[in-house]
Amino acid sequence: MEPRKTAIAGRRILVTGGAGFLGRAVTRKLRERGAKDLVIPRRAECDLSHWEHVERLFRRTRPELIVHLAATVESPAGRGRIAESFRNNVLMALHLLEAATQAGVEKVVLLGSASSYPANATTPLRESELLGGLPEPPRVVHGIAKRLPLVAAQAWRQEYGLRSIFLVPTNCYGPDDNFDLESGYVIPSLVRKFVEAAESQAEEVTVRGTGCATRDFLHVEDCAEGIVLALERYDGSQAVNLASGAETSIHDLARRIARLAGFIGRIRWDANQPEGPMRRVLDATRAEREFGFRARRPLQEGLAETVAWFRQTRGLHTTAEDSRAAASRG
Fold first, then answer.
1. 222: domain range?
2. pTM of the model
3. What is the mean pLDDT of residues 183-212?
4. Which of 111, 116, 208, 294 has fewest C-beta within 10 Å?
5. Nearby residues of 213 by Cβ (< 8 Å), 6 or more positions away
6. What residues have CB less than 8 Å from 285, skipping those under 6 apart?
7. If 0-12 CB within 10 Å is exposed, 13-18 middle and 19+ buried, where does residue 159 land?
8. What percent of the chain has a predicted confidence (pLDDT) above 90?
9. 228-266: per-residue pLDDT in tens?
10. How many domains are there within the chain?
């Protein structure tokens, strides 16, 4: 039986996290498909981890479709306020599922995380293994918090008939990412390091780990397209990976970014620093089979675009970081 299609044009769509890195790309895609009534709540006015805030949001906006992108994000190394992160991520998803059921929302899209896959899962990572064991330390807490909504979505579908789908994106990157050296992920952090090293004519850049670990990288525009395609075309209860399916070593990644940044010095690998699981590449065949998704942006092209964007906007990043530092000092 053909899956039920979900029309986007003219619908009222709630996009949590719609002002974030991935959210901005998703809202652009929705508008390209004719969505004109997008609801993008801000945490300052609407904390989705509080039920009364969610109730008020639904009474005021009456959404027909939901794309849930909001998340409390830990640092890449798993440091930070892990209990608060766990609570917020789980409660936001549960509150949205409950409110969507009560309000008769047509469809809900939830996002997981590649860090949710079990530490002993075989590569490439297939959706059937997602619940097969504990995630890799030190991100066990975050990994479990990000896959619990899959179990909840399946339960709400079974008991209440809520059309809720669960997507697992791999490492997203691209222009407008978080380039902070402490909290940014691998591509934006390396872009900043090598651009600044090239401009200061540094002789050496230190990169954490051995460089032997491999990852799967997906341009933010491709990831956003996959989310919108799933909203339009996918109705299954099983998780679906959004990934390029291409395995790239951090060693190769760093050298590519260094060349694009014009850095000609030495790259020193700090093997004493953690680098996470040695392989994390997602199988992308289910997404192509179920709703026709395939990554379009080659990594080299996406990296060149990201390096160029950071160069053009670097002053804005520095100003924003200085402002945050001043605010934290009171």
1. 12-173+218-245+280-298
2. 0.92
3. 96
4. 294
5. 249, 250, 275, 276, 277, 278, 279, 280
6. 245
7. exposed
8. 85
9. 999 999 999 999 999 999 999 999 999 999 999 999 999
10. 1
